[in-house]
């Protein structure tokens, strides 16, 4: 009888932990970001795609926050993995993004985590960089997701900074 009561009590406590946090991502001073340009194509369209993909990733992470919590993140600088270098064809020059271990990703942002009543739980300013990324070991994954290393860096920060420790 005691074990059954304990199991029911544990089930009730786990069900009380509801995860449905949300996130809002803002982009400040995009035209001054360190490296936020496409290798080829229309710059504005590329930036909107990258902003959308990173915002979607942050919103997915925020769903793991307790219900009612909101993460507001204001991105102030982005330096994408790799570096743009010129290539020369028959009649025109293009650029290609070359990725080497010295061209690691960076992202700077301010964040604020609030509860359902709007009270600030945690806030800060972050300057993330992933100097230890290994492009060669993840080359096949990287080809499928252009922002793999940026998303990995944000996930690590989220898990270390905002995820509740049990």
From TrEMBL:
Residues 1-20 form the signal peptide. The keyword Signal applies. Keywords: Signal. Pfam families: DUF3016. It comes from the Bacteria. This is DUF3016 domain-containing protein. It comes from Idiomarina piscisalsi.
């Amino acid at each position: 009888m005691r074990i059954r009561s304990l199991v029911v009590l544990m089930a009730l406590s786990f069900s009380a932990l509801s995860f449905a946090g949300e996130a809002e991502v803002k982009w400040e001073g995009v035209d001054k970001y360190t490296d936020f340009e496409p290798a080829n194509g229309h710059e504005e369209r590329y930036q909107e795609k990258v902003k959308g993909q990173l915002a979607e990733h942050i919103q997915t992470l925020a769903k793991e926050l307790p219900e009612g919590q909101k993460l507001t993140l204001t991105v102030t600088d982005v330096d994408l993995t790799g570096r743009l270098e010129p290539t020369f064809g028959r009649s025109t020059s293009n650029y290609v993004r070359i990725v080497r271990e010295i061209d690691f990703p960076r992202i700077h942002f301010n964040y604020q985590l609030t509860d359902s009543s709007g009270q600030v739980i945690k806030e800060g300013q972050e300057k993330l960089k992933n100097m230890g990324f290994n492009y060669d070991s993840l080359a096949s994954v990287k080809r499928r997701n252009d922002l793999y290393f940026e998303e990995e860096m944000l996930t690590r920060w989220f898990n270390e900074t905002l995820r509740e420790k049990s």
